[in-house]
Amino acid sequence: MISGEIIVPIVNVIRLSNIEGATRIDSEYYSPQFVENRKILLDNSMRLGKYCFVTDGEHGSVDFQEQGIKYIIAENVKENYVDLDGIRYVSDEVDRRNKRASLQEEDVLLSIKGTVGLSSVVTLDMLPANLNRDVARLVPNQKYIDPYFLSIFLNSKYGRLQTLRESSGNVQQMITLGRIRELLIPILKNQKLYNIIVEYSLECISRSKSLYYDAQKLLLDELGLSDFNPKYELSYVSNLMNSVNEYRMDAEYFQPAYEELIEKIKNYKYGYKKLLNLSKDIKPNFNPLSFPNNTFNYVELSNIDSSLGIITDFTTLKGDEAPSRAKRILKHEDIIVSSIEGSLDKVAIVDKYSENSIASNGFFQLRPMGILPETLLIMFKTSILQMQLKKGCSGTILTAVPTNSLKKFIIPNVKEELQKDVTLLIQKSHKERNNAKTLFEIAKKGVEIAIEKDEATSENWMKEEIKKLGIEIKFKLGGPTGGL
Known about the structure:
Layout: E1 2-3, E2 6-7, H1 32-42, E3 45-47, E4 52-56, E5 69-72, E6 88-90, H2 92-97, E7 108-111, E8 119-121, E9 129-131, E10 135-140, H3 147-155, H4 157-166, H5 177-181, E11 184-186, H6 191-223, H7 240-246, H8 256-266, E12 272-274, H9 275-278, E13 279-281, E14 295-299, E15 304-305, E16 310-311, E17 315-318, E18 326-329, E19 335-338, E20 347-349, E21 358-360, E22 363-368, H10 373-381, H11 383-392, E23 410-412, H12 416-452, H13 455-468
Parallel strand pairs: 5-9, 14-21
Antiparallel strand pairs: 1-2, 3-11, 4-10, 5-6, 7-8, 7-10, 12-23, 13-22, 14-17, 15-16, 18-21, 19-20, 19-22
Helix pairs in contact: 1-4, 3-6, 3-12, 6-12, 12-13
């Protein structure tokens, strides 16, 4: 079985003496990889629960509201960061009722249901926030455990192998709080080193978001849409002939707010064009089952960071393991857009690292022709095309945008000079995000080297790798050891 980069043997042979008194007797729990991982950590580690408060979030149902306390669920917790795009809010009362899960800066989050074992640190910009039951809140005693080091370790090979081993469940994997408290954490002297690297990575992400916002603002200012806030009418009248011509009888389709947007685009000083005159609608006709032994990276909606328009992750699988909906093969600079109502903001540009990945046919796939990819990305991320997507949604059981709706979409005819300015900002934004991702990977690998070899070797390797990026980070060594 393959899970990301972790390969678990299909057949395991274990001695009966090794499982006497154990609470788990399933063979996978005793996979040699899991057993060896624990053996390595036992030499110089501590039990997480000894120096860390561990709890989870709200177990009951909650009512959501427009603003208030951010409500974090497992899908928000990514490797080394929290995706707040599309976050939902609860009341102060929910936060007071669930005080144990009311987050504080430098708490550590761990996904404990679904995709188990992803971890990130709570930063000030996330607060105030609370959790549901699918996320664990870890509050380390910082005399002994640095929170950034803890998160990096949990995301490393040695952390993920533990959480994968301790997970259980048939339909959906989960890990109990009791099991989390038993996780082994290595005792390292220079934990502060990882803290500094992660904090710099978070600064890169902040700069990335700022540049992305600047690109959006530049385009919307040019189009006079920065403050565009159309009023959604509760009641309105539409001509019957319009319904006949459009083959639509639902009232939402004729909401005047949509027409207000269309008029804005049509009145743009340089005119407008049909979306499909400037991009090609790629059909989902790739079949990975024709390549059963090939390895593919599979991209789903959950792998899209819609706040930056990038693909952040993927699932590695063989062609014969691909789901039936995996019908798209991605190419560099394609724009992929969710067609499913409720996730229309899941839009991303395909970078060179994601080329030849496969993706769900729940995406539209547009190949820019006559428009720069970054400009088209921003158009899909803003009201320019988001409102047209929303207008196009139809269906009862699964509401989605039909493919033929794309033929009706229009976009402003933006001059090339402005497109280049937008492109430059987006490219800078994505470079900062890639730097952050690389730094996270360096820190993660650094922890693994420290465990496998020693801290001096790890420190030297990390500094050399960071130097290759052209980044200068001032390191102050040391960190929580608590006399351990």
